[in-house]
Amino acid sequence: xxxxxxxxxxxxxxxxxxxxxxxxxxxxxxxxxEYYKQKLNGSGVDLSLVTHIxxxxxxxxxxxRGHFPWGFLSIEKEEVVRLHSSSGTTGNPTVxxxxxxxxxxxxxxxxxxxxxxGIRKSDVFQNISGYGLFxxxxxxxxGIERLGCLSIPAGAGNSTRQIKLMxxxxxxxxxxxxxxxxxxxxxxxxxxxxxxxxTRLHTFVxxxxxxxxxxxxxxxxxxxxxxxNSFGLSEMNGPGVAFECTEQDGLHVWEDAYIVEIxxxxxxxxxxxxxxxxxVMTTLDREAMPLIRYRTRDLTRIIPGPCNCGRTHRRLDxxxxxxxxxxxxxxxxxxxxxxxxxxxKLPEIxxxxxxxxxxxxxxxxxxxEVEVKREWFRGDLNFLDRLQKQIVHLIRDEVLIRPIVxxxxxxxIPKSEGKAVRVFDNRNSYNTKSQ
Amino acid sequence: MTWQISIFLExxxxxxxxxxxxxxxxxxNIRSMTINNTxxxxxxxxxxxxxxxxxxxxxxxGGVSATxxxxxxxxxxxxxxxxxxxxxKLAAAAVNFDNAYGINHGKYAFLIVDAGNIPDARAKLKAVxxxxxxxxxxxxxx
Lengths: 435, 142
Prior knowledge:
The structure holds 2 protein chains of 2 kinds.
Chain A: H1 5-8, H2 12-30, H3 34-39, H4 61-66, E1 80-85, E2 95-99, H5 100-116, E3 124-127, H6 135-147, E4 150-152, H7 159-169, E5 173-176, H8 178-190, H9 195-198, E6 203-207, H10 213-223, E7 226-233, E8 238-244, E9 251-253, E10 258-263, E11 277-283, E12 294-300, E13 302-303, E14 315-316, E15 321-322, E16 327-329, E17 332-334, H11 336-344, E18 349-360, E19 363-372, H12 381-399, E20 404-408, E21 423-425
Parallel strand pairs in A: 3-4, 3-5, 5-6, 6-7, 18-21, 19-20
Antiparallel strand pairs in A: 1-2, 7-8, 8-9, 9-14, 10-11, 11-12, 12-15, 13-14, 16-17, 18-19
Chain B: E1 3-10, H1 15-25, E2 30-37, E3 42-49, H2 52-61, E4 66-70, E5 72-77, H3 82-92, E6 99-105, E7 108-114, H4 118-127, H5 135-139
């Protein structure tokens, strides 16, 4: 039933005691970093209860970027064995460092998560996720190996090859972003195959982008599998932060490794279980880069009450939106500012632009509409064609996904007034309007 | 110099009509047209009209992305082989062009050529003895 029964079913009181001890250690460790040494200086917080964490200051993404590259490092550089980094060339990326201990602990959380979703040593696990700086590749890889499955580090894309791997090696479980699975299913059909009959698939792990319960049920129906929701963010390692158990009723967040708080993003006051607010997280088992009260900007709630599975770690609901203007397409986190940064560099393009997120042929796409300035228009088709391709290329380099770029007539995009609404989310999967 | 009006046009209901309405109100007569469309939802509309400067000005005033673009207009015989005759000469002169379209005019037909480098194309045509039409002839002003 459990990967680590003694931790996963620890009584709440004991779990909070464990959190408190680890929090004290974490603060001590964090003080080794340049940033927290200053930030926590003199804040003599009386930590006799976990809730006293509220006395500590928040940490934000801007803090991470502002103290790039080493400001948050809490161990000697030579003890760091890996880093993961956000995409982007505008401004400083968000970098997270890991020691050997951190990686082992992450792999264990990941293994615990997979076990929680019913995956066992006997499974063949195909990770359809980009490897490299993106945490969904290596994060899952180490967890799958720690659990003892046969791992297939397939990487993203190339559906025909993915299907061949599944059939050649009898893949039973996969991890992928939900918007890819519709595409994969189409390729099964194109090849005259039925994934329900022609594969041994039984479990999917889906995450890294928002999706609805209906979308999950559709995926389960198409492939004849159980699909489990995975939640993580690179600042908190990546995947393996919170995971659904076989009850499929919320994601257990591993409270021996993280303290979770839900706050009102406006007043910053804590909210009770059950109410939707911004998720704030503190690491409890990280050496290289402990983070205290990190504002994730993800909006969710803690589902009140215990879970039927017997785990005592509380459950997060699906992410319902963001408290900033970030959006996620094809598993990539994108800020409108990144797109704007690219467009501002091009003199041929006007100041106004629009980002439309839309589901096309079961795939989520980012459409960027830009105006060609009148004075640059020479009636030359080749020029416009080249310009359009150049914009696609530059945005792709910046956000890592390929946008659809549409050139539109000047004046056809409404002028911005104050803080303009730039992003229109028309995707099937996303029920919360971003911005 | 001989001009066509080139217009950036989105592939949306009402956009082409906006252009023709403005030209009607400016009393500009269209002699020939072609649309290059792309898969990205936009294209370029090229027009040969009787008064290109007046037409272009009216369009720009009306908020349309329009510009004057130089062209070469060549006369050809209105009979089988008429276009082939002229293209053989263009090929012999090594004139490359980006776009071409035609006008029918009774006994003759006109070939409109949009080349990237017009002065170069004119010089090459001159070398093989092909004389382009004057602007007045091209616009078919009556």
